[in-house]
Amino acid sequence: MKEIIKTPLEGAYLLIPEVHYDLRGYFYESFSARELKGIVEGDFVQDNQSLSKDPGVLRGLHLQMGEHSQGKLVRVLRGKVLDVIVDVRKGSPSYLKWASFELSEENFHMLYVPRGFLHGFVTLTPDVIFSYKVDRYYDKGSERGVNYADPLFHIDWGVKNPILSEKDARNPFYKDSGIEFIYQGSKQ
Fold it and tell me: Which residues are catalytic, by number?
């Protein structure tokens, strides 16, 4: 990695890879366990990818609970998004705070999202391909969501009428979500 930047939220990192260009195009390492040792909590076990066809598609806010909670390494393969994370680990120095990051195919930025964070993004361009590398397998029974417009967070998504899935449109506010995470301390 060219840079590993601590975000304002405890345990979350913005990763900027070293991109090597030549007449053929570019090359970069999108993941190195050696470089992220001490940052990433577990071993990545599953890669997920989504396509969002239109600008203004909002996916989130999501997480998995309990033993199925996931740390994520996220990046954009095509297009541009505003990526948003919210720390919901009670006792964390950044509890209930949020941060946003522009991730795009042009800037190559990646975000490490630790367990106990809500995660979502809104597309800023058409035909966005988004990649998630996760350290626990998906478990439908552990999946939870929080309404993107929860007044507790006051997140500025930059869109007035986002395109939502039916499931995301029904997400409750955080106070009614039943989400319970306890901060386990910093690894750094």
Answer: 62, 132
Task: Please check the confidence at residue 184 and state whether its pLDDT lies above 90.
Answer: no
Question: Is 157 inside any structural domain?
Answer: yes
In percent, the amount of the chain with pLDDT more than 90 equals 95
Task: Name the amino acid, one letter, at 1.
Answer: M
For 186, half-sphere exposure in the C-beta direction (CA atoms, 13 angstrom radius) is 10
Decide if 164 contacts 148 (C-beta within 8 A): yes
Asked whether residue 186 is assigned to any structural domain, the reply reads: no
Calpha distance 5→7 (Å, rounded): 6
What range defines the domain where residue 59 resides? Answer: 3-170
pTM check: above 0.85 = yes
Q: Using one digit for the tens of pLDDT, what is the confidence trace for 170-179? A: 999 999 999 9
In a domain, 177, yes or no: no
* Per-residue three-class SS string for the chain: CCEEEECCCCCCEEEECCCEEECCEEECCCCCCCCCCCCCCCCCCEEEEEEECCCCEEEEEEEECHHHCCCEEEEEEECEEEEEEEECEECCCCCCCEEEEEEECCCCCEEEECCCEEEEEEECCCCEEEEEEECCCCCHHHEEECCCCCCCCCCCCCCCCCECCHHHHCCCCHHHCCCCEECCCCCC
Total count of domains within the chain = 1
- Residue 13: which CATH number? 2.60.120.10
